[in-house]
Amino acid sequence: MSIFLARSCGAALLLTVSAQGALADLSAKDVWSDWKSYMTGTGYEVTATESMSGDTLTVSDLSMMMPIPDEEDVTAGLSMPEIKFTENGDGTVSILVPKEFPLTVRASEDDDKLTVNLIITHDGTPVTVSGDSENMTYDYATSEMTLTLDGLEATGEDIPQDAIRGTVSLSDMVTKTTMSLAGVRSYDQTWTASALSYDLGFKDPDSEDFASFNGAMQQLQAHGTSTVPADLDKSGDFSALLAAGFGLDTDFSYTSGTSAFAFQDGSDSLTFDSTSGGGNFGVAMDASKLTYDVTQKDMAFNVTGSDIPFPLALSMAEAGFNITIPLAKSEEEQDFALGVALRDFAVPEMLWGMVDPAGALPHDPASVVLSLTGKGKVLFDVFDAEAMEKVEDGEVAPGELNAVTIQELLVSAAGAKLTGTGDFAFNNDDLTSFDGMPAPSGEANLSLTGANTLMDKLIEMGLMSDDDAMGARMMMGMLAVPGEGEDTLNSKIEISEDGKILANGQRIK
Predict the structure, then answer these.
(1) In what helix (H) or strand (E) does residue 351 lie, and over which residues does it extend?
(2) Which of 249, 285, 336, 414 is the most buried (most CB within 10 A)?
(3) What's the whole-model pTM score?
């Protein structure tokens, strides 16, 4: 379904607020022809009524339907009443839709049908297209754009109007997209808005049960580039799509945000609200790799519920996740990365009071950070269903791990802190020395502070026995040596190519 979503989003974007550059005359028919070429090229069956009057081309009763690849008897599409393409006399074309117009999304499978009716409103500003038939720039700005759910029908039954609601609004939105054709379609788009708000909800007509979700983000910015092959494979073969040149690289950011969620199901209830000091989301994909990078900062959460004995107020300075995954089957080494960051996670004193009523432990915020990079090989086509099945059955090895670098390790809580770095290579020809795992070689450098003090306090609190503490201290004595600071232990763990393991120069295996 992923290729369908990509195609649908691309087409919907073109039908509402597009954007794309050059310096030659355009005709209304040039722009409309390019739209049709794009939509039919991505698998849609396009029908519309066209009429030219003077310098204006009116396209009415536009309908786009597309069968979903690999899904028998499943189709989806959308329709809208009218679009006007007007030649401005200066080589540019204006695209105008009414200030308020309906947009209908349809999906069907056998006898099951779904129709979603939407209303789009904006301030009436047209999109301006400049350039020529091979290079177009779409510029658009509106003080307000709103998308409102106007009705939902499933399998011939109307869902009551007040049972479900949905509204998304953008303020002061400005977009600019440059599109060029040179064997592939390439897009370069910038997008800004001063604010985005959303309000979604559902209420059971036969009870008091409901769910609602609303929020807002401020000062949004986005930039993205993408390429779409001219001869797009319509079979749903994503591997073929990537091989033909499909790719994207986008980054989205905002400066602050709020959200709230409420849920009621009989006697069960839950409410949640949060604030954020901003964040960013990035995704990039091509035939060689897939990358995600998500970060949010200065978050605060409040949670109450029927199953929660008292309100919870949590906060975190930063939450982040990043991953880079190689996609291409290759005998050559490829880069990968993985990172998780939870910095300064704080819980309320009420929770601390249940665990540490006397305040024996430091109640400082906790952090967990891990950042890894490395090299490996992908030995199968990740988008080939047959190859994936062979991997799952153990007939084919999915890949090889060749090297891992620990860029950062940080775990801190209750006054203790562990930090470290490391660098290891892996021998995939030796799967016996470490019980089926490729034999590693390299070293890690670790530092632990506050561990003995923490164990002493846990013993005083009755949360740790003397025997458990003694075992832990014996292990630390084997693997670590005293550092320069008070209650500090350092450890250098080395693994040689012949399988020896040393801790601070002393062989332990």
Answers:
(1) helix 349-355
(2) 336
(3) 0.84
Residue pair 135/178 in contact (Cβ under 8 Å)? The answer is yes
User: Concatenated DSSP letters for 8-64?
Assistant: HHHHHHHHHS-----SS---HHHHHHHHHHHHHHTT-EEEEEEEEETTEEEEEEEEE
Q: Are 287 and 316 in contact (CB under 8 A)?
A: no
Burial class (CB in 10 A: 0-12, 13-18, 19+), 378: buried
Q: Which residue has the tokens 């620990």?
A: 406
Can you name the residues that pair with 439 across neighbouring β-strands?
Answer: 427
Q: Quick check: helix, strand or coil at residue 475?
A: helix
Residue 489's nearest CA partner among 455, 447, 442, 431 is 447
Single-letter amino acid code for the residue at 320? G
Contacts with 154 (C-beta within 8 Å, 6 or more apart), sequence order: 112, 113, 114, 115
Mean pLDDT of 310-339: 94
* C-alpha pair distances (Å), 506 with each of 62, 494, 495, 509: 76, 10, 11, 9
Residue 428, both tokens: 């995939």
